[in-house]
Amino acid sequence: MENSKVCKITYKSIWNQEAKIFYIKPLKLFSKDDTIYLHAQIAKTPGKVYKASKFDPLLVIHRVENLEITETSFKFPDNFDFEKSFNQTFGVMKDDSFQARVAFSGYAAKLLCDNYLVR
User: Which residues sit opposite 59 in a β-bridge?
Assistant: First the structure.
């Protein structure tokens, strides 16, 4: 990050069986609730047309399977404001906030009951 180099990463999200390869501009590492996250922007994949992403990726570090630093440099965004981006919604949603009632089942329900809910 300190050298402002685009990185090629192999990342396996929790909902995909196969890891995906993409290019990012790493902006900030931070931790919350015993997890380390990387906030980044999508970079152009060599040989492909660049399409801007609606949301910046928020990557869980332990899901990064491989990372290669490329020779491609990027300019750190002048208007980057980490506090503004993540204070209200932790960066998951950037549209208007709303309230929702959610029911968890299976693995997610067990994980929540075992680790987060007061009995």
Answer: 38
Does the reported pTM lie above 0.70?
A: no
Q: Would you list the domain boundaries of the chain?
A: 5-115
Report which secondary-structure segment, H or E, holds 114.
helix 106-115
The sign of the torsion formed by the CA atoms of 103, 105, 111, 115 equals positive
Name the CA dihedral angle for 17, 21, 26, 31, rounded to a multiple of 10 degrees.
Answer: 20
**Positive or negative, the Cα torsion across 77, 81, 86, 88?**
negative
Res 79 pLDDT > 50: yes
